Amino acid sequence: MQADFKRATEFIQQYYQENKLANVDDRLSEIQNEIELSGTYTLRNEELNYGCKLAWRNSNRCIGRLFWNSLKIKDKRELTSELQIFEALKSHIKYAFNKGKIRSVVSVFNPQNIKVYNQQLIRYAGYRLKDGSVKGDPEMVEFTSYCIKLGWKANFGEFDVLPIVIQLHDYKPVLFDLPKDIIPEVKLEHPRYSWFKDLKLKWYAVPIISNMVLEIGGIQYHTAPFSGWYMSTEIASRNLADSFRYNKLPLIAENLDLDISKNKILWKDHALLVLNEAVLYSFEKAGVQIVDHHSASEQFMKFVKLEQKNDREVTADWSWIVPPMASASLEVFHKEWNNQVKSPNFYYRSPFWQSGEEKQSQHSKCPFHIDSMH
Ligand code: ARG
Q1: Which residue segment(s) compose the domain that 48 sits in?
Q2: Best of 143, 209, 237 for a ligand 1 pocket test (most atoms within 8 Å of beta carbon)
Q3: Which residues bind heme per the record (predicted)?
Q4: Domain presence at residue 371
Q5: What is the pLDDT of residue 5?
Q6: Of 53, 295, 310, 338, which has fewest CB within 10 angstroms of its CB?
Q7: d(Cα 213, Cα 220) in Å, to the nearest integer?
Q8: pTM of the model
């Protein structure tokens, strides 16, 4: 990979300027020499740290950015074997979960020749059944069958945690099962409806995105899993509710004795509220950090004000920032933002198991997509 000195310069200058550091030119000529000699350059540990924080601060779709400066960075660039990488991913889960007091963290691996195939480190399998229906998470059907092809022993349950798939160079990808005791999960119950726990719903505690490319100063880190804590609507209004995901609203509405043939009785809205209450109540009861959408909206507005104070414009994607619940009662609903993509950032990339043609057709027009970055 040939590093681009122009992009390196932009990032290093920003790093020196925001941290009020002197002698940026010395560092820039050092980087220039390194690129001339080797074709690329290595960020110093403190540059990498700040670059990761900026990548979060620049993430237009994230409502949780008030906390960008508290991100912890695990520099794992020296690791070279599948097993070492798997151990580091397990440590990431433990460090992030922190017995429920979740810490935002990113683990950065060598930018070359390491691939983690998973979309998130913890994710539930989805199985297409003979009658065409799906058991588990429909979003994971394709990846699940890929894992089975690689030799994974499926359980065919509704909430089976998928294995980690790691590939070095173009060797055969290697599967690792995460030990059950390091996967924190929260069983869902409702503060008033005792039938709710009989639905046997649950969700994992920490979302750890592992399919995005971290770009800092022109260098792309294809393996840089990052995590924060959940906002309740992500689980309750989307993962468990979307008709193309776990699709649990009809089941909950039935238990509430609502007639699901009548739009006008707002059965989906009732069911959504009950599911959101259950997620917040159960996470709180289990001592696992989670934020509701009202607090998240307030925190985001605080972030916007702090950025303005520092003479920086917040870029944001309105359709992602506004939570999928009680939208107009939140301050973020009534604002507008510029959705320009700044560097450093996290970008989407196509799943590693897809062919070139599939990649092209799906993402060629998306500004966040790394295949169209250069
Ligand atoms: N929406 C994704 C999910 O439900 C997680 C995205 C990251 N979310 C976060 N709170 N850091 O799994």
Answers
A1: 42-123+161-363
A2: 209
A3: 62
A4: no
A5: 97
A6: 310
A7: 6
A8: 0.96
